[in-house]
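Sample A.
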Amino acid sequence: MQADYVIVGAGSAGCVLANRLTEDPAVRVILIEAGGRDWNPLIHIPAGYLKLLQHKRLTWGYTAETGAALAGRRIPYPRGKVLGGSSAINGLIYIRSQPEDYDHWAQLGNRGWSSEEVQPLFRKAERWEGPADAVHATDGPLQTGPTRDQPELCQAAIEAGAQRGWEYRTDLNDLPHGLGDHIGWVQQTRGGRFRASAARAYLRPAMRRPNLTVVTDAMVERVLLDGRRAIGVAYSRGGVRQEARASGEVILAAGAIGSPHLLQLSGIGEPEHLQGLGLEVRHALPGVGRGFQDHFIVRVQAEVGGIATLNERSRGLRFLGEVGKYVLRGRGILTYAASLVAASVKALPESASPDVQALFASASYAPGPGRKLDTKPGMTAGVWQMRPESRGHVLARSPDPRVQPEIDPNYLAEDRDRRTVIAGLRLVRAWFAAPALARYLVAETLPGPALQRDDELLDYARRAGTTVFHASCSCRMGRDAMAVVDDQLRVRGLSGLRVIDASVMPAVTSTNTNAPTIMIAEKGALLLQAARHAQA
């Protein structure tokens, strides 16, 4: 097959790119996805994510190494393997992050990535449920909207935050520079009763265009190089090896795990690592797979009384009533995001701005990413450090593309990260103790009132903490020797090859990463279009 562009990965970024590039009928695009079509109905029911995070067919089934930092645990590391990628299995939270994040990217030498410059890209992507304004647009592909159902316990959590001195924000995507502690209702990637995955929002309309070819159930094995130029990819489908050639550019949008892994399998990376696997070094680029970051979430959980929670509403006759609400009105618990309330608060005194994010749910869960609801009424706040300093890696283990790479987020390697986790747990405890929530509090169940000292809380975090699914930075953008792409998202030292996904973040954004990833792809499409016009 031959096209102008070959895109690897139909996740959040790949779907955006396929749509934007094929808006020009003269441009031919091939989009290759390892997973299948997004036909599973649980994908499209918002609360269905609870059943998808470890789905054997719709995820890659990855696990992450944690070593001594997390008591030697191997933790599940869900990434979507289906049209829409992780946007098809995530918790639907739409938060763009703090403006300082993007200003930091620009300060690192990445031209065009400041908060002022990326803000129009967020608006370009968005089809906001409410009226258009300076923050939200209504004519983009991605359906977003506010939290409509606002449970009483979540309202109490916001009131408790105000009692702690946190500013209530009516729009968590309208954040001025220098904002201090704040709390509000999350926004969702949802259109009506259905999830607005990147596949539903961007790819489905584009698949009607004759200039887009979508290949599913195809494992890309390597990038094809002609000297220093990428000319296509080799992939296998149904046991048959095939090639897709690009007359223009090859674009890796396989995510923070898949993109560095594929570069390494193609002989692009740290020479010593590649040679140790018996791979020919085609281009030395030591930063590939390095600098990997993720947010590390630890939960505080409590039993509550005298108020309804999600736990009871998800069982028996009450659940049948919720199904009826969903079918008849598109409302109720089946439309909920992973959390409905988010707070950004400063936990360490030396931090200049909020340094932890806490997501609140009127529910309680068993430990780990499986998100199994408890039987007793409960509430949970998951807290993570917004700007971790620890960095890990994603490294191929074998020349075989079907062998999972080594994924090591290297959580809690830095002292500041450990201190922030401890302070974050104490902050959530104080939130739960504020009068608005304390009147419902029966008992803390995790980490439990017996754990009070710093070392005890840190040990709890090591035993119970896990990923919050924000993999990033493994092909980071920059100008230093360890950068993988430049600020045009071109792989350094090669032509015809770009990486456009969350892996290019120079540092992980402070909050959820799906909205920023879609923004990155919107900008990447503009960069590709500009380069094409410059060559014309």
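Sample B.
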Amino acid sequence: MSKKINLLHAFRIPAVVLSATLFYALFLILKLETLAIIFVLFAILLGSYRLFYETAVSILKKQFALDYIAILAILVSLATQQYLVAAILALMISSGRTLEDYGVSQAKKSLTKLAERIPNEVFLWKNGKISEKIKIEKIRKNNEIIIRKGEVIGLDGVLVSDDGLTDESSLTGEPYTIEKIQGDPIRSGTINIGNPIVIKITKEQKDSAYNKIVEMVKNAQNEKSPMVRMADKYSGVFTVVTLAVTGFAYAISGFDLTRALAVLAIATPCPLIIATPIALLGGVNASSKKHIIVKKLASLEILSRAKVLIFDKTGTITLGRPRITELKNLSDFKNSEILAISESIERNSLHPLAKAIVNYAKNLNAPIIHATNIEEKIGVGISGVVSKKTYTLSKLKSQDGMTIGLFEAKKHIATFKFEDEIKEESKEIVKNLKNQGFELFIFTGDKREAADKVVRNLGQDIVVMAEASPEDKQRGIAQLKKQGKITAMVGDGINDAPALALADVGMVFSNEEQTAASEAADLVFLGGNFSLVIDSLNIAKRTIYIAKQSIFFGIGLSVVGMIFASFGFIPPIGGAFLQEAIDVAVIINALRTSR
């Protein structure tokens, strides 16, 4: 019921304009001309005031606007005292704007669900019990809140309770549950699926991980993309054509303004203004249904033209879930002690190798202990203090990139060897991309041997840059761009952020919260499914195809209609109705991108 009420509310202005126009016709029949003029002028003013206001604003900003044609049509209608035509134009303009607003809101519908998941209010936890319920935006750092079973966690923090269990699928797109112990980080947007937990807040709402996802969506919705500017470019040409045809009609009709008005009516309002943003926002909507967040509308247009794809290896082509194949003990510690120390430190990292150690320790029932003073340096390693001693885990440079060592000071305590698997769908998807004519690259920090092994398993011609630092990856992107190639980079880690930011389109697998990578990327995949790359390419191509189709479809029909009107085959009223039919058809076509 509420949806119907909202729809009726949206069309309230066109409804009033229509009513006033009908009263105008009624009073003319009753020969009450003064009342008729009052009602028709009210209808024209109400239906077109927004048009005149927005055009005035664009003039002040020194921006070209296609609305000049609509304004000219209304002014000519008034000059020729064809008030009914002016009223119908005003009705069509207000209806078109309302359809545009409604279409955009429909295109955004699934995106707004992201924000709606987060609760508006939470319960504070004070002195060991539930305190008052307050707005989430009023929660401050170091406040403690309680989250009941099944509730979405609205803010980032650390676990105060002894233990907890969270569902992270909203961030990863995968059915992924995490066991937590006291002191572990808790991420916003996840769900508490265990007993009630108490969280100490570390980030306020505006800085929370999930809020950043919502902000990505808002920025995409509000941005004016190059595709929209392309529509503006076409609109300039269309305006010149319209004025030329209008002048022609005016001349051959013996300088009859009525004939000129018929041409202007068909060109008002132009589908270029309405269809293109709806098509692009529909593409954003279609992406969100696939767990793809499009941060910038421009990226859809650029991605549709990209023919060079650069991939990171681990977590992109491979599962990013390496497993331990060997634990080599080089000290007097027991294996269980080595695992307990390593797990207590790596539990605080998002690196795939860290997860492998945590899972390995859990499977072997290693003791759970707590580490403090955690420090992680991207591309180097992670350290922490356990029992007043500082331990460090870092990659061993002489190995293949899948081996790390545990150190206490400079003493080498243990070595972990790992093995990662190619994602099941990677081979087929890479083959698909090659068949589409894409030039493929792999930029990885792993050793050449590990990278070449992956390429051999994929069975395709792929250029490899191995042992690449974040700066090396960025330089590689820069070289490709210098060659005039449109580049799309796919990564998943923080070390990919510089390259993602430099690429024409950066795409990132956000398997939990790779904050720097997500911030640098243009598209964020919520999950690790490699097929999302194909989905994003297909959505981009389809969106731009439909956007261009809508532009040329609208222009073509309008030009044909104007030519017929210039020779007197279509009267002004008929022209106004014909243009509205074209607009509705274009909007319906543009909305196809949402599917």
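B remarks: The chain has four domains: 2-113+216-282+541-594, 121-151+155-207, 290-319+423-539, 323-419. The chain is about 55% helix and 20% strand.
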